[in-house]
Amino acid sequence: MAKENRKETPIIDENEVIKRKKEKIVQLKELGVNAYANGVAPDTTTEKVIALYKDEPLEALKTPGGREKHSIAGRVVALRVMGKLAFARIKDEAGSLQVAFTRDTMGEDFYKLFKKSCDIGDIIWVEGEVFVTRTEELTLLVDKFTLLTKSIRPLPEKFHGLTDKELRYRQRYLDLIMNDEVKKSFVTRTKIVKFIRNFMDEHDFLEVETPMLHPLVSGAAAKPFETHHNALDMKLVLRIAPELHLKRLLVGGMGKVYEINRNFRNEGISVKHNPEFTMMEFYWPYATYEDMMLFTEKMIAKLAEEITGSTQVVYQEKTIDFSAPWKRMTVEESLIEAGVVTKDALKDESALKEIAKTKGISADKIEKMSRFKVMMELFDEVVEPTLWNPTFITKYPSEVSPLARRSEDDDDYTDRYELFMAGREIANAFSELNDPAVQLAVFQQQAEAKQGGDEEAFDMDVDYIRALEYAMPPAAGQGIGIDRLVMLLVDAPSIRDVILFPHMRPE
RNA sequence: GGGUUGGUAGCUCAGCUGGUAGAGCAUCUGACUUUUAAUCAGGUGGUCGCGGGUUCGAACCCCGCCCAACUCACCA
Fold first, then answer.
1. How far: A239 CA to B70 C1' (Å)?
2. Which of A100, A152, A384, A459 is 20 to 30 A from residue A374's alpha carbon, by CA?
């Protein structure tokens, strides 16, 4: 049953501190100080100021005077007032810099106004020249100061900062103010996406955008979010995958295409799952899944090196070796290698089921499964968590691969692989199924499964079959989970650490 | 959805066997011209997640609910 998200009356919490700060804004207004000023811009950043003086001898900088003036703007994150001298730390988008306010430099009245108006958390603009303090810290000696924006909410404590994970995710803005490494992770995320985009562009892939609102469920095995179009009075679902639209573009002769955007799946939330996640999906005409493996290991190894400086990347205290070539095994080989099954047992449904039971997979679940499904269950349960270095697992059964091309030599299997790293799936790829008759048969099976209560089964997509009937060139396609890839490269334990505003229940 | 742990001041956390709700930082007042977790003196600040119950008395015990983290299930 749907829960009512909106509360009766929106109430913003207020305490004594906030009340006082609000009153202060009124007092400042009476003194002619605008607590929400604008039109005053800095001419540089803290980072640039520091870079400018980093080679100057410290001794010379200890005496103030005669140097160029710089203006910076940012948030006051620390303030130490000692009578007629005050130090503040100003944080801007690039970093932070200590600034000093003195009565002698600013004049008595102006200094008093500064003391009265400026508090921790406020956003201010200052101008002055640099000097170096006794403790040899580069500091801007302020002669001009403008309060830009008052903060009326107290910042978290300076020593411990903001550590409560719930608050950090809910109030990401505050997390960004207090925890510098957060911004770093998200800047890296952007670099990763940019790298991938450049890599695709350099290899002549065309970036496209396909619909997020779908009339049908297709492209993956997942439960969708449902929504409603009012004017058309029709049910729509948020896409679980862009696959079938991108393949329609292959039919249309668009050539190599890719899309980097969100998918939505109405499933559990975990350290590896967010209801909306970013996928890079691409399709490559006249290529096979084997071409795709070479392309992928080249791209990701180069990406790892570009981002971290090495193909050896430490994730959660264990090293992942991204250097190509990557290990390749079939699903069946991986099960044999892991010592889970023998070659003979793989062909024997009841033997497989017995083994599955010993691996803690529920007997009820196994009973209804085919040999191939039990095999995949065993793989997911036993092998997947052990695949730490990048590994391509190939030869997935046709039964669990509704959109992949059946292998030439055995149509129980497909020309498909999944890529695993750090014990998790990062990508899924295959040579594409382009035989409309086979695809239609698969859709019919899926539609029956859906009738039978399988909530993750596809809808029949008649237009897609029609498109295939016009002929889709042989092609390989792949989807890469961007959030998960970012997690590995920024050493994030949870997907929430690489999503700016992860999904949370309302407060 | 199940299990475990947690929710006490704006933040970080104490709070014993049920007996008047605490500290540090922030905030307010005062002192202070080289601090950087500044320091010193004094003050303000609480729906103890929410709702019931037990009890002379509940932050603490019991029941229900909400939220989160971790974990399992599901999934990429």
1. 30
2. A459
Using the CB atoms, write b or e for A229-263: b if 16+ within 10 Å: eeeeeeebbbbbbbbbbbbbbbbeeebbbbbbbeb
Task: Give residue limits of the domains in chain A.
Answer: 14-155, 178-326+389-497
Whether this model's ipTM surpasses 0.85 comes out as yes
Distance A507 CA to B50 C1' (A): 13
- Radius of gyration over every alpha carbon of chain A, rounded to an integer in angstroms: 29
Cα separation, A116 vs A124, in Å, equals 13
- Predicted pLDDT at A455: 80
A154 CA, B73 C1': Å apart: 41
Nucleotides of B under 7 A from a protein CB: 1, 9-13, 24-28, 31-38, 44-46, 66-76
- Å from A134 (CA) to B28 (C1')? 32
B15 C1' to A165 CA distance, Å: 24
- Separation of alpha carbons A448 and A404, rounded Å: 19
C1' nearest to CA of A268: which nucleotide? Answer: B74
Same fold, A14-155 and A178-326+389-497: no
Q: What are phi and psi of A419, to 5 degrees?
A: -105, 130
d(CA A39, CA A102): 25
Superfamily of A14-155 according to CATH: Nucleic acid-binding proteins (2.40.50.140)
Q: Give the per-residue pLDDT at A404.
A: 96
Alpha-helical runs (H) found in A309-451: 331-337, 343-346, 349-358, 363-367, 371-378, 436-451
**A178-326+389-497: CATH, from 3.30.465.10, 3.90.360.10, 3.30.930.10, 3.40.50.360:** 3.30.930.10
Q: How far is the CA of A192 from the C1' of B26 (A)?
A: 38
Residue A432 confidence (pLDDT): 97
Nucleotide nearest to A365 (CA to C1'): B73
State the nearest residue by CA to the C1' of B40: A82
H/E stretch holding A304 reads helix A289-308
Q: What is the mean pLDDT of each run of 10 residues along chain A (507 residues)?
A: 34 76 92 93 97 91 90 96 95 95 94 94 96 94 95 90 90 92 94 98 98 91 90 94 97 97 89 92 97 97 97 92 95 91 88 83 78 89 90 94 95 95 93 96 90 83 96 97 94 92 84
